[in-house]
Write a structure and sequence with these properties.
The chain has 6 helices and 8 strands; from the N terminus they run E-E-E-E-H-H-H-H-E-E-H-E-H-E. By secondary structure, it is of the alpha+beta class. It is elongated, with a radius of gyration of 21 Å.
C-alpha cells in the first residue's frame, strides 16, 4: 500500500513573501510490513523538486511551522523509528549497544559510514557476533548450521509493533492520525484495542 499526503506549503526561499512550495510525503508499506517514507518540497509550478528524499530533519529544523502539523509530526515519528525497517545491519542488541555508545560519546556515529570503527567497537564489547541471534550458514559439505550473526553481514528486519502498524496503515489508507482511545479517555470500561481516529 502507498499514499502521498500533502502536508501544506512552506516558504522555501527566505526572500519570498508568501508560502509557495508544497510539502508532500509518500508512505509505503509492503505486504510483509516493510515501511518507507520520503518527503518532497516542490517548486511553485510543480515542475521540479527543490528538496526530496530523506529530508525530514531538514524540513523540521528549517521550517518550524510544520511542527504544528499533526500529520507531518506523525509521519516524522514513524520515519525516525521505522523507515527501512528491513535494512538493519545489526541485531537489536548490537544496534542498542551502538546507539548507547554514540549517546555516551564513545563513538561519533556507526554504520556504513563508520564501518571499521563500528565493528572494532562491537568486538571490544564481545558483540561483533551476537550469540543470542543465530542465523543459518551453509557449509562446504552442503550442510547448514546455526551460527551467531556477525554485524554487517546481512540485512535484518525489525518488526514494527502492532500499534505502530495501525498508525502507518491509518495514514496510508485514510490520511489521518490514529490514536488509541485509551490515550484520551480515562474510562475504565474501555479495553485495550478500542481506538478512534483523529483528524
Amino acid at each position: 500500500m502507498e499514499r502521498t499526503i500533502k502536508i501544506g506549503k512552506i516558504n522555501f526561499y527566505d526572500n519570498e513573501k508568501r508560502t509557495n512550495h508544497d510539502v508532500e510525503v509518500t508512505l509505503r508499506l509492503s505486504d510483509d510490513n516493510c515501511f518507507s517514507a520520503v518527503a518532497n518540497v516542490w517548486n511553485f509550478h510543480h515542475s521540479d523538486i527543490l528538496m526530496g528524499g530523506q529530508c525530514f530533519d531538514t524540513i523540521l529544523n528549517d521550517f518550524p511551522k510544520v511542527k504544528k502539523n499533526p500529520i507531518f509530526m506523525e509521519v516524522y515519528d514513524l520515519w525516525e523509528n521505522y523507515h527501512l525497517n528491513n535494512f538493519h545491519a545489526g541485531t537489536k542488541a548490537q544496534e542498542d549497544l551502538l546507539k548507547e555508545a554514540v549517546k555516551n560519546g564513545e563513538l561519533n556515529t556507526y554504520g556504513a559510514n563508520n564501518y571499521k570503527e563500528t565493528c572494532a567497537y562491537l568486538e571490544s564489547k564481545d558483540m561483533l557476533y551476537d550469540k543470542n541471534y543465530l542465523v543459518s550458514k551453509k557449509q562446504k559439505d552442503g550442510n547448514t548450521i546455526k551460527v551467531p550473526y556477525q554485524y554487517g553481514t546481512g540485512w535484518l528486519k525489525e518488526e514494527i509493533p502492532e500499534e505502530d502498524l495501525l498508525r502507518i496503515k491509518s495514514l496510508i489508507t485514510d490520511g489521518i492520525v490514529y490514536k488509541s482511545i485509551l490515550e484520551n479517555n480515562k474510562n475504565d470500561e474501555l479495553e485495550k484495542g478500542d481506538y478512534e481516529y483523529e483528524r
